[in-house]
Amino acid sequence: MYKNHICLAIILICLTTTFCFSSDNYDPNALRLSANNSTVPSGTAEDGIWAKVLSSKFVDILFGFILGLISACFIDYLRTRRKAKRFRHAAYIELKQMLFEMLIYTIHPDSIIDKEKVQLLLDLMNKFNLNEEVFPTENNEGYEKLKNMSQENIDCFVSAHKLLKEQRRRENKMMTLKKLNCIFISHNIETLPILSIQYTSRLLNILRRIDAINSYIERIDFAFKKTFDGSISTQNHDNIVLDYYSDCQCLSDFAKKTAKEVADFIAKWRK
Question: Buried b vs exposed e over 193-227: b needs ≥16 C-beta within 10 Å?
Answer without folding.
Answer: eebeeebeebbeebeebbeebeebbebbbebbebe
